[in-house]
Design a protein that fits this description.
Elements lengths: L1 H15 L1 H13 L6 H26 L6 H6 L6 H6 L5 H22 L5 H25 L23 H29 L5 H32 L10 H26 L3 H23 L13 H25 L15 H33 L7 H21 L15 H18 L6 H32 L11
Helix pairs in contact: 1-3, 1-7, 2-3, 2-7, 3-6, 6-7, 6-8, 7-8, 7-12, 8-9, 8-11, 9-10, 10-11, 10-13, 11-12, 13-14, 14-16, 15-16
Length: 490
């Protein structure tokens, strides 16, 4: 019980630490030219308090302190140590505490790693991030307290859901949360930069690191979840278009698009509006997914919380964040005339822009397929489920040009490229890919045309990617220099 008390009061004091952070940030914004060290100091104190709280919950799980309601509902004395520890975040309350821990950690790292950037930009980023952190503090303490007591103390716990006792799934949630919460730093940073008209290629170089970190962790989280689904759910597949799978895919699609837009912004100082909107969209989708899962609105094999009150809190908080985002965008963002540039048809940025629109189409399909049954249920009380055929029919036809542009785009130059400027190998591998695809597909006899084109496009991307690793030099040597490619600037 002592560790639960320590954990709870650490959360309370952690929330209190936000007050001096706000005070010194606002004071520092108007005055000095350098960042007040007190802001970093109190951010560190807040981080330590959240770490202590999280460790208090872990220790409660390890020692099987069943006076803690969260431990009682998700552990038992005979459970292996590994699953006792992973059980800390294998439930609603513990997972939100992990969210808060990563939020506090990332803003502290941001402060340490952004010393060369504009002081007011750093301060505004801290303020926007603190709004999110305070929201999670209040959510935890008000309706999702991981340190509630059970009296009298039970002698044994109920145990963790057996389906969650898996090594892949033990690592899967932290990876997802690192991806989700990483997008919060991007969100706060882009609002700060927009407010100060600070979005530039220099800023893009800085924020690209956070986009990459978030993308890597979110990708790993989705992959681990797919591996778990393959052998744990017993349906023989990695992806089922389950609603909870979709709510992790949507921010991944937005984040992937954002990564490419940031690269264009860094190189050409264009697509600023794309970067702002996608940064807001990515974190909004992460929060929206949290709302859909925690509220119990989605029926899924993955859902472990069903509490409309919690969902209402997240939804209200989400509306606040969206309102702040829209206010900052429409009030402070000024379209740069230099940004209105007609891209050359054959250029790297044009191929990225085309694929951006395709990615947004894929995102729209997944979003509609996920939320349409919810709205239909609310409006007409009719319950339906949207299955794989819906997604396959709408996505696969557009996946073909998407794969081809993925292959061709990196081979083009920035600003302008000639159509076949030392790139005859592109035609060669296109023909080879479709011939191989036809030979494979003709033995199956189903949807010969669409499958041949789809598999051919995928093979084409594979071959071009392999060429870019340096293996192509061997082909160039064998077939002669005319077949080779000229060096392409990155």
């Amino acid at each position: 019980m002592i560790y639960s008390s320590i954990g709870y009061y650490s959360l309370v004091f952690g929330l209190c630490a936000s007050l001096p952070i706000f005070f010194f940030a606002i004071k520092n914004f108007k005055n000095d030219e350098i960042l007040d060290s007190k802001i970093i100091g109190f951010s560190f104190i807040q981080l330590i308090l959240v770490v202590v709280s999280f460790l208090g919950l872990i220790i409660s799980f390890v020692i099987s302190d069943f006076s803690n309601e969260t431990v009682y509902n998700n552990s038992h004395t005979t459970k292996p140590l590994f699953y006792k520890i992973s059980g800390t975040w294998g439930n609603h309350e513990g997972s939100l505490l992990l969210w808060l821990l990563v939020l506090s950690l990332f803003i502290f790292i941001f402060l340490l790693k952004s010393k060369k950037l504009l002081k007011n930009y750093r301060i505004l980023t801290v303020l926007f991030q603190q709004v999110i952190i305070i929201g999670f503090f209040i959510f935890l303490l008000d309706s999702s307290n991981p340190f509630n007591h059970v009296f009298p103390t039970p002698t044994e716990g109920l145990g963790l859901n057996p389906i969650l006792q898996d090594p892949a799934l033990a690592i899967h949630p932290p990876m997802l949360y690192l991806g989700y919460v990483g997008s919060s730093i991007i969100f706060s940073s882009v609002l700060a930069a927009t407010s100060l008209n600070y979005i530039s290629n220099t800023w893009a170089t800085h924020i690209k690191q956070w986009v990459l970190i978030s993308w890597i962790f979110l990708t790993l989280g989705i992959l681990l979840g797919s591996i778990w689904a393959y052998y744990e759910l017993g349906w023989g597949g990695f992806w089922f278009w389950d609603p909870v799978e979709n709510v992790s895919l949507m921010p991944w699609l937005a984040l992937t698009t954002l990564l490419h837009c940031v690269l264009v912004l860094e190189k050409r100082s264009v697509l600023k509006s794309w970067v702002i909107i996608l940064s807001i969209t990515t974190f909004t989708l992460s929060m929206c997914g949290t709302f859909l899962v925690r509220s119990g609105i989605l029926n899924s094999v993955h859902t472990f919380a069903n509490d409309p009150e919690r969902g209402l809190f997240i939804l209200s908080f989400l509306f606040v964040l969206i309102f702040i985002s829209l206010f900052v965008f429409f009030v402070f963002h000024k379209s740069d005339k230099e940004e209105i540039i007609s891209f050359s048809l054959f250029s790297k940025e044009t191929s990225i822009l085309i694929n951006n629109w395709l990615m947004m189409y894929f995102l729209s399909v997944v979003l509609i397929g996920t939320v349409y049954p919810i709205f239909l249920d609310v409006i007409s009380s009719e319950q339906i489920s949207v299955g794989p055929p819906f997604y396959h029919k709408l996505i696969i036809p557009f996946l073909i040009p998407f794969l081809i542009f993925m292959a061709i785009g990196p081979q083009l130059r920035w600003i302008k490229s000639s159509v076949l400027e030392g790139k005859k190998y592109l035609i060669f591998f296109l023909i080879v890919s479709f011939v191989i695809s036809f030979l494979i597909i003709k033995n199956f006899g189903n949807n010969l045309l669409i499958n041949t084109v789809l598999i051919g496009s995928a093979l084409y991307l594979f071959f071009i990617t392999i060429c870019n690793t340096g293996i192509f030099d061997t082909f160039a040597y064998i077939f002669g220099s005319n077949f080779g490619r000229n060096p392409i600037s990155p």
